[in-house]
Specification:
By secondary structure, the chain is α+β, with helices and mostly antiparallel strands. It has three domains: 215 residues, Lamin Tail domain (Immunoglobulin-like); 176 residues, 2-Layer Sandwich (Endonuclease, Chain A), CATH 3.30.870; 165 residues, Endonuclease, Chain A. It has twelve helices and 28 strands. The protein has a 16-stranded mixed sheet that branches. A five-stranded mixed sheet has the order 8-7-2-1-12, covered by helices on one side. A five-stranded antiparallel sheet has the order 9-5-4-10-11, with no helix packed on it. The two termini are 20 Å apart.
Length: 639
Amino acid sequence: MYPWLAFLLTAIVGASVTVAPPPQAEPPLPPQLWLPLVSRSYRSGPPPLVLSALYYDTYLANEPDEAFQLYNPLEWPVTLEGWQVSDGRRITAFPAGINLAANARLWCARKAVSFTVSFGFKPACEYSGNSDPTVPDLTGSALQFANTGGRVTLLSPQAAYSDTLVYEDGDTNVPGWQGPAVYPYRSSTNFGAEGQILYRKLAQATGLPVADSDTQADWAQDLADIINGRKAQRPGWSLERFFRPAVVSETAHLEVFLAPDNSYAALRALLEATQQRIRFEGYTFDNARLGELIAAKARAGVQVELALEGGPPGGVSDQQRWIVQQIAQAGGQVYYFRSNAAADVDKRYSYQHGKFWLLDERLALIGSENPNPEAFPDDNQADGTFGRRGVYLVTDATAVVAGLQTYMDADIAPGVQRDVWPWDAADPALGAPPPGFTPTYTSGGIFYPIQKAQPLQVTGTFTFQLISAPEQALRDVDSLLGLVAQAAAGDTVLVEQLYENLYWGAEASNIINDPNPRLEAYIAAARRGATVRVLLDAYFDNQDLNSPRSNLRTVEYLNALAQAEGLDLQARRRNPTGQGIHNKMVLARIGGQGWAVAGSLNGGEVSAKLNREMALKVASNEVYDYLADVFWYDWGVTP
């Protein structure tokens, strides 16, 4: 056994924890504001209003979009007239006419126009001048929330304490707060403090903020909670809207197509049959033949709308720039999600990494693969092919189609979301390809014998759930973790992934301080007696075997753990189709019912918490059997 592995298995990893510097004192609020008085209306009822979010270190210069959010946990509306908010030095008060509905939240911003620019909607009020005449103004002093830390205090009209949030280096020795302050979640450089919203944890059952305990444990940045804590939020997300997934059962048609076996022919047939509208939200697009087909559809009058990631590692290829040019010149609308520091624009998501389509507002396609030649080879496959392993799920289920439409409408909103940029031929990074560029059409090969020449087609009554990141990826009452949590003795869990990081957090961290909740779920299922197999990619992984979070390290750890504990758990690395396992698939047979989860969700922290990702969970024995056949073929391939 590797020494480091024994070190991990005996759980004696001793990584140090950085201790925040002692908070600097702030002038206390006037004594009369801290009367130990509780308003009569709350004496025998639920707790009073609370602070539920704070946006203080903003991306805009000079922070004109600073804002706080209030939440009403009561079962009746509250009139906010006379309520006060303090930053520890200044106090602002609500005028008449602003109400907070039962179990509702509202944002109040420093400058309403700036908040609207950042968030894509107007706040309920503003407190530093009348920047928007349609937004009510608070009275008193203009609040200012220091980037280095401070406090926010909410007081009722009787000047009675209601709630306090202490953040970063703010003074924690104040009424209404206990223990350490709340800090932005900064496990790695992907989680910057600038542009991060502190927000109260959401209860998975209701989607509402959790009950107040006056501690950092209430807040989503809580380091002690690996499921509901250790999170960030950025302006422009629809977290509250999408946090609770819809789980529906309906009669529908299901198609499963497999990369590289039948993916090109299946996707081409669906696109060719589309008569009215093609929408695609994706990461990259490098398949010239599919690009030409979509351009032809646009010229024929089909509405085409594509939204792609503007900053993939290594940049956008000339091949993609050529494809986008063909589609745009044919009349299609193409947008990029991108940052622009010069214009004070920061992307909502670290990466728009999802791969999902809507065709004629009738079919939803959700999968693991970008439309590129590796995943969609168009060679003669009689002698085999060569490409990347991946899966797409396709359905006409009305709830899935409507749900995906809602996500797309929220994400692709030019003029509302500032990080959505229309394609511009003159753009030096994303515009037209170099003059004289010739696209490449070569794809495929003979490395891999086709296992599934045809997609699966099945009709029946199925249970569906869309799973999105960053909103839902770590829910453990449903979604992926909730499904795996049901597996026990007699059940099976099959995982085929591009990667599953051994741990999350910083590169120098470890599995004790920063566990990967997905791996933890697979291990827990095995400990309950389930058969668990984890198949990870070797093709891409071989390029970085020295990383402590390579798939090789994960496989070694899982197998050693299984041997030490006597678990029915095995892990392998493979490259069954020649150009890597790019799949993001979990199959489960629980109590005799087959389930499949497929989409774009990788096994890393950024994927779960900062990216736009999409997956579909479906209950279907036919889908499970079709994909399990492929899994076991891939599992048995010679290393």
